[in-house]
């Protein structure tokens, strides 16, 4: 299975099926329902901002995603606590060396 195939697989988030690439939408909805739209989990992302982010990979339940606010910064979402960590990577830094 290719990475693209993996991103197009369905994943279950709190009983609802999402494409893997859109799974943060499910986590954001769960955060908003559990703690309200003003939740401090996933700060500095609001639930709506987190829901708009695209997941591009995962490891040991951690989800690597693209910041929907700038479409450049890469972050890690931790589903077990709803926390996020910014990486030093960007979309450009990952693509740059591969570009023709």
Describe this structure in words.
By secondary structure, this protein is α+β, with helices and mostly antiparallel strands. It is built from four helices and six strands, in the order H-E-E-H-H-E-E-E-E-H. It has helices at residues 3-7, 23-35, 47-51, 91-95, and strands spanning 10-13, 16-19, 54-59, 62-66, 73-78, 83-90. The strands form two sheets. A four-stranded antiparallel beta sheet has the order 3-4-5-6. The protein has a two-stranded antiparallel sheet with strand order 1-2. The protein is globular, with a radius of gyration of 13 Å.
> Cα distance, first to last residue?
25 Å
Lateral arrangement of strands in the main beta sheet: 3-4-5-6
- What portion of residues belong to β-strands? 25-35%
DSSP, total strands: 6
Question: Residue share in helices?
Answer: 25-40%
What number is the mean pLDDT? 87
Note the run of SSEs as H and E.
HEEHHEEEEH
**Structural class determined from secondary elements:** alpha+beta
Approximate shape: globular
Concise account of the structure shown:
With 100 residues, the protein is an alpha+beta fold.
Attribute tags:
single chain; 100 residues; alpha+beta; four-stranded antiparallel sheet; two-stranded antiparallel ribbon; 4 helices; 28% helix; globular
